Amino acid sequence: MIIFLTGLATVAALVSCDVLRVLKPDNALPRAVVIITAALLAIVGVAAVVQLVHLAQLA
Known about the structure:
The chain is mainly alpha-helical. The two termini are 24 Å apart. It has two helices and no strands.
């Protein structure tokens, strides 16, 4: 459940980055948005690797 919520937050962060890019194409993205999005992507990536390792151990 936590991974699902983290994935949902990651999608929301990525969409907000895209929306900010479209609305203000000349301005740089806020640093906080970039850091939060990168952190969420890292969490989802680590969770995916952990799940793959767990599945490999079961086989």
